[in-house]
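Researcher: Before we compare anything, I want clean individual predictions. No alignment, no superposition, just each chain on its own. First chain goes here; please echo the sequence and then give the structure tokens.
Model: Echoing the first chain and its structure:
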Amino acid sequence: MSSLALLAEIRQSSERRPYEVLKLAEPLLNSSNQLTSATDDAWLVYEQVFLSALDEGQIDLAKALLHILHSRFPSSQRVKRLYGLVNEAAGHPDESHKLYSEVVDKDPTNVLALKRIIALLKAEGKMALAANELVGYLDTHGNDFEAWLELSHIYLGLHMYRQAAFCLEEVILQQPANHYFHLCYAEINYSMGLLDIALKEYLRVIELSTDNVRGFYGVKLTADRIIELLSSSTRSGSGGGKSRRDAQMSFSLDNVPQMPVLEKLSQLATERLVATYSANKAASAPTKALEDWLKQ
């Protein structure tokens, strides 16, 4: 297979294999006639090699390729975005932001430029501004689940748990069979004290991924916590118990299983976790201590 065919294969797979791309492109760049004979593919190769040069830190090569692209497409917004990437790599984020903003002003639907603006804001630690930009982006591109996931991560960093949970709900709507997203959603709800939702989501995790250790840990911790709160509420009596219970619980008792079901869930999770750690015959002392805790 020729170098051009291999480069085309890498482009079509959307893989980032910069070292391999540069090796394949080296003889083509040294033989301008061979690359020119590729007609329209030549410009795709130039852009591909440009991006690989940036990945490998070869800024001078990237600038030389960008000069070729700009000579051929002097008014291209796509090329202008590449200038932004070079400025980022060279440590000039302000110039990059300006270029990306100009691209977006001319074409508000330019997804790549919009995402680079958000990435720059994140790199500068301006998380609140990055979140605002992402919200605006998602108003138009609501089916981009990766953007919803990124916004959830930003909200978590800002300790905005309800907003992060909402973003993950959007992710789960688009990717309902991915156990990892259910796990993240369960953990956020557990952190907020919404134990009824957390328990359901942890159970969904082990339904989708039957050997998921974090899922079983979540089931055990959540079930045990609900049992503890229910027991505390019962001991408090019917008099002053309601206000005390409300102070401890931010979820509805109507939405959680009965005590026997909770105990069975905790027991099942414990058995599965103990079995997982016991499978290692050379169990260390910390592992044995963990098993003892699980069996309590």
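Researcher: Okay. Second chain, same rules.
Model: Second chain and its structure:
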Amino acid sequence: MTPADVSAALAAAVRDAAARGEFAGDVPEDVPVFVRGPGVFESPVALRLGVDPEVIARRVGGVVSRGFVRVVVDVGELVDRVRSDPGYGVARVPGFRWDEWPRTFENPGFVVRYAYARACWAIRWAGAGAVAGPLESAEPDELVLISLLGDFPGRAAQAERERDARPLVLCLEKVAVAYHDVHERCPATDGGRVALAEAVRVVLGNGLNMIGETPRERI
């Protein structure tokens, strides 16, 4: 599940509560969801609607935390959902471009482009020897990266809604920096880590497309 999936499940839970007479108000089409950690999502939907949060939480298999409905998703499931969805966060946000030069880590555009190329390289290097599979366990650096991958759809939607690329660009830069750490410390030598590299390729590739730049597998 991604934040969009969680949002849809929460909206469905509100509709179900309304149908059963447990809620008497307007059912929102879009439910806000915030990323609180790797695979951890929270929503203030119950607070905003004035409905008992337990009513919503039990319908989505979540819990209540400080009045928020919290949904915890297995990190392997989140990575698999991201890498297998080619439309993850796709939209258009015009009016932004990083500099092409210098091609050093002082240039955030290079950091993002090189991270995309590195993810592509990791997938090619793994080849048939490490078919993408579930990420059964994750190191701390990988958990940071997974949390940022989960935040991407929200930042992409914000950028599209506000016609401002900055939220998206900042997210891409954070994902890229986190992936460089993972690439160095946690090589894609097994199926789960190949899946993580594929998720990074999807997010960075879609993010670059959103700002009108063609992702490059080699730079």
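Researcher: What stands out in the second chain?
Model: The helical segments are 3-19, 45-49, 53-60, 75-83, 108-126, 140-162, 166-185, 191-210. Additionally, The CA atoms of residues 36 and 42 lie 7 Å apart.
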